[in-house]
């Protein structure tokens, strides 16, 4: 028989080749299927016998489907491209370098056509079926002697196959390869691990037990696993099942077990990926607010977003303040309040005993800059009278005419410690005052009562010590409080409280700081202190103030507020205010005007601006006029250093610690050793170097004279 076949094949080679092709294709398919069954029986992984309808090799051949057995497999349809499936990934592939450089424009079309032709497994069914049928159709037609039909059929099938293969990714984009779904990529390996754990037979199809979303990289994607009724489960079993599922998938997943249902199952849902916390910008542009009671300051991080930092001056604690070391940017932040106030028609008084900290605001309508202690005290007294008169005007029995005149006002005390200490020196050594000066209490009253009268304060200070605010109650009226740059632990405690967790801002960024606006931290349930970046407005200050609404003539002329009545002046006498006003017995001779820069000699009569310091440990140096009882006159300037008792101990003027010095101070009166009166501000008493050293000599002499 075999001899006859060989003889026939030798006589009819074309027919013999066609017969071999037609018989060989089904035989190869049968052998491939038998190999899959053998792999399954031997327990080798990724073995799934094709049992579904249409899985026969001849059917897959005619339909243009992938002929390679097992998963993964392209699911190309007749008109749709299949998935791009990576079957074999070697270590060399994983260690490959960066992706190739982008194609040049002139090479794009040609290389894309070649690449599209190379994606044989992703071609649509019509393309692969056309190419596959070229050979058998040609053989059959040639066998029958239909050469014209052979040529036409071959050309038609070739054109159809090539057109369907290259038009999509190359030119027209009719179809594109789909990325492989999760069921195709992760399903086989996942099922290989889950099937033994669940005790499911090999003959069971994966699709009946395990379902995955097409895209498991998006939040909300699901993996659902049906559980056999007899599965024992338990915590160990659940952990094993969860590990088999989630270890093969990207991201974080939440699990839900439904064992009590009539059809028990488990599901895993993809969690939302953690959002990236934004980074504060190093520069923030300032923007105007149409609300006169909301001042835009900068930006801070809240959760996963940047939010605007706003000073709300209509709150129960309406005043605002900025703390920090010299050069940290306090004046820059105070400028924001000044510009916002003027753009909304608010009148501004600036207490600037440094005489150069807010120069951009000088010479502008609606802004008065007070530079000497006498001017600052006079301005504070007039401001307090204005507040008292405004309260009376807006009351039930107030004069409607005066009520219409009222204008909101803002007083900015830049370097408050400097101003307070210079005022104390002026009180003690220039006007020879005794006891506690009244202007420290004026400031306290203004903090407590300024809100309802639209009279607010902006404060700059190196430290938030009670000595400069009148006490804890008054300091608490600073509703929006910031600390710029580096802040040590004591300064943090007096600014935000010991119970507030310390926040360290990025001190490498100019102006960076921490603020608190009275909000409660939802995590700690305490005061919420957060890092923020203030706006830098200094280059714009002059131009913005020039565009602000003009101030009333009385303000720029340096006059008192017109709603201050004779009754107000009479009430002010009980607070010792009139003597300190302009033209008063102790006040400056000339008013400070707005709209023009106040020019003064380099060394003013009475006081030279000292360096501001912290509450403890830093002496304050000032020039004072000796032998002068009034505000005028010239006299030789004497250098005076003021120290509190604790500062004197820290500076080495006293050879004891603070506790010992307090004991010896109390014993001085009993022993008849005079202790200096000093300069009290109501809470802390300051002494000159000569007073401290003189008392030390008397104390030591008294100790030596005792037997």
UniProtKB/TrEMBL annotation:
Record's protein name: FtsK domain-containing protein
Highest taxon above the source species: Bacteria
Species, as recorded: Streptomyces virginiae
Keywords on record: Plasmid
